[in-house]
Amino acid sequence: MRRPSVALLALLVLLAGLGAGCGDASGPVRVEIRIHYSQFDPAAFSVPQGVPVTLVLVNEDPIDHEFLIGDEAFHERHRRGTEAQHGARPDEVSIAALTTVETTLVFDAPGTVRYICHLPSHEAYGMVGTLTVT
Question: Which of 3, 91, 112, 116 is least buried, going by the fewest C-beta atoms within 10 A?
Fold first, then answer.
């Protein structure tokens, strides 16, 4: 039995690695968003249209925050008054101090939405991010 050459094995490994990045774009996506010093990190990212996106929200601050994601009309409604807690809707999430929360959304149309913490003065402090749906 003949043994494959090192060069052939290296080529096979390279090809296998290239194929791994060409998977089906309809698979689920996970994005971790850290909250530290009342800032979202990352403050901008993109996701594919029509694919379930699980957002892992990690609050590293010793205070509560919220993660509200939507268009400008959605945010204008929330600027007028903040609910005590969120959680029954995947686009409105309360995150207690030093906890991690996950929520899953599907964005059906391309475009841009923002995620904001609407607790008093948090938006003015810069707790705003942008999600682009491609």
Answer: 3
pLDDT surpasses 90 at 6 = no
Q: What is the pLDDT of residue 5?
A: 44
Q: Domains of the chain: which residue ranges?
A: 26-133
Containing 131, the helix (H) or strand (E) segment is: strand 128-133
Say how many residues make up the chain.
Answer: 134
- Does residue 45 contact residue 97 with C-beta atoms inside 8 Å? no
As a whole number of angstroms, the distance between CA 66 and CA 84 comes to 10
Q: What is the mean pLDDT of residues 5-25?
A: 39
* 4 pLDDT higher than 50: no
Question: What is this structure's pTM?
Answer: 0.77
* pLDDT of amino acid 25: 56
Count the neighbouring beta carbons within 10 Å of the beta carbon of residue 41. 13
The CA–CA distances, whole Å, from 34 to 13, 40, 70 equal 35, 6, 19
**Residue indicated by tokens 């391309």:** 110
